[in-house]
Amino acid sequence: MIVTVTLNPALDHFIFLESFERGVIQRFSQDAFAPGGKGVNVSLLLSSLGVENRALGLAGGFTGQELCRLLEEAGCQTDFVQLPQGNTRVNVKLRCADGEETAFNGAGPAIPEQAVEELLERLSRLREGDALVLSGVLPAALPETAFPRVLEAARQRKARLVVDMEGDPLLAALPYRPFLIKPNEEELAQIFGIAGSLNVQEVKEYARELQRMGARNVVVSLGAKGALLLEENGQALFCRSVRGEAVSTVGAGDSLVAGFLYGYELHGSALGGLKWGVAAGAATAFCEGIATGDQVKAVFPRVGEPHPV
To answer: Which three-class secondary structure state does DSSP give residue 168?
Structure first.
C-alpha cells in the first residue's frame, strides 16, 4: 500500500477571465474547483494509474469536505483527519485569456494536538514495506513536534519513506533513512548555498552528499532536461525528458514521484521507476492539471533509455 500525507492541502478555485482589471467588478462565467496539495497530486495520479493508495492529511470545514469529495470522485481512497474548527484553505487562481495567472493562496486552519494524535493513529496502521509519501510544505499552525513524530512513525512501522519537501523538513528527514527523496535542481542548489544552475555532474555530487546524510535513493528533477537518479548502490543514471509543448509545470514534480512509485512496483527496480517518473512528469507538463494514467502511458514509449553519468 502507498499512503500519501498532505498536511497543508487546499481547495483550488480556478476562475477564467477574459482580462483582469483592479478596482472594478469582474464577472466570469467559467470556473472550476480542484483538490490541491503535493501529496494529493501524487494520490490522484497513482489512482488514475490503477495503483492502490490512500490519501491522508488534515482537512477542515466545508472546504475540507469538498476536497475529500473531489478526491473520492476521482477514485482516491481518503482518510483525512477532520479538524474541529476552521476550513481547509482555498487558493483562488485567476486565469486570463492571454495565459497570465494571478494566485491568491489562503492560510490553513489551526491544528490542535488532538488532530496530530489522530493522524499518528492512522499512521500506526502502516505495515512493513508500505510506502509513506510526505510531500509539500509544513503548515505554520502545525505543532513543532508533529513532523518528527510522523517520521518516527514511519521508522517504527518499517515503511518505505518517500520525501518530496524542501529545506529544513527535507534535511530533518534524512536521519530516518528515507527510501527516496526528490529535490529539484533549484532546491538542491538552495540546500548547499549554490547560486546559478548546476550541470549534471554537479547535481550528481550534491545528490551523493544527500545520500551520505541518510537518503537511500535520490531523484533530482531537472525540469525540461529530465531527471538524475542516484541509486542506493551508488550508480548514477540520467534520463532525458520528452520533447513537447509545456502547458504548465505545476504538479510535474508530484507526478514524477507518482510515476517513480508506479514504475518501481511494475518493474521492481529504481531504473523502471526513473523512466516512468520522467514520463509522468512530462505528461503533466503537457496538459492542464495532473495527467491521467492514460496520458502517462502514451508518453512513456517516447522516453529514452537512462544512461550512466
So the answer is: helix
What SS3 state is found at 79? strand
Q: Which grid coordinates belong to 278?
A: 520522467
> Who's near 265: CB < 8 A, 6+ residues apart?
51
45 residue type, one letter:
L
Q: Backbone phi, then psi, for 111, in 5-degree steps? A: -120, 100
pLDDT mean over 52-65: 97
C-alpha closest to that of 123 among 180, 175, 81, 181: 81
Q: What distance in Å separates the CA atoms of residue 71 and residue 40, rounded to the nearest whole number?
A: 8
Catalytic residue among 79, 168, 254, 294: 254
Separation between Cα atoms, residue 220 and residue 226, nearest integer Å? 9
Give the tens place of pLDDT for each residue, 238-257: 999 999 988 888 899 999 99
pLDDT band for position 97 (50/70/90)? confident
Query: Dihedrals φ, ψ of 5, to 5°?
Result: -125, 125
* Domains by residue range for the chain, with CATH: 2-7+38-86+111-308 (3.40.1190.20)
- Does the annotation mark 254 as catalytic? yes
Buried b (16+ CB within 10 A) or exposed e, 8-23: bbbbbbbbebeebeee
Grid cell digits, residue 255: 507526478
Helix, strand, coil percentages in the chain from 3-state DSSP, rounded to 5:
40, 25, 35
User: Can you give the pTM of this predicted structure?
Assistant: 0.95
Percentage of residues in the chain having pLDDT higher than 90: 88
Per DSSP bridges, beta strands 2-6 and 131-135 are parallel
Query: Look-up: residue for cell 487546499?
Result: 10
Instruction: Give the whole-angstrom CA distance, residue 285 versus residue 103.
Output: 19
